[in-house]
Amino acid sequence: MQLSSPLHLRHIATHLKRADHKLAAMIEQVGPCRFTTRGEGTHFDAVARAIVYQQLSGKAAATIYGRFVSLFGAETPVARQLLALSDEKLRSVGLSRQKSGYLRDLATRVHDGMVPIETLHELSDQEIITALTSVKGVGRWTAQMFLIFRLGRPDVLPELDLGIQKAIQRAYRLRAHPTPKRVLAIGAKWAPYRSIASWYLWRSLDSAAEYRQGK
Length: 215
What we know:
215 residues; Endonuclease III, domain 1
């Protein structure tokens, strides 16, 4: 059964509500889970996209990413082609010197076989995190987003994510944002579906904003 199938998501929501009454209230507020994965393109393309999008607004990132992809013509970006591009070419589409370096490091590691990009989905969660964080500019959070939204892995809790920390603080009425260690402790009861719990935590912040705006 696929993680994103409506039947499975309803089952998971029921499991989470039974596991944690505070999360249950949040789930009731948010409503049905509409979690989906980003399946188009390749794993390499997905990681490159994550690098381009770092620390940029959605619109600006989308514009630069679109220009970056256009460098490859009608083809999906691949490591060999990226390595053939000059730094000047990468900079011409709006990429910073730092991000150009990150993308080149990704391409080098993939091309040399240090990151088994085409078979990442066959590895465990931790193996994937280890492989991806060996790339310059790819941290634990980015690797976790890949696990959740690219591969649909069900039990990932991004303990470093500020949105997750803020939502837990609100749900548990904490005086301050919980530390990453406390996030993991609180979220232990949500296993083996911490990815969906995370989706609800993120969505609860959107729902709260909509409520305050009278939507």
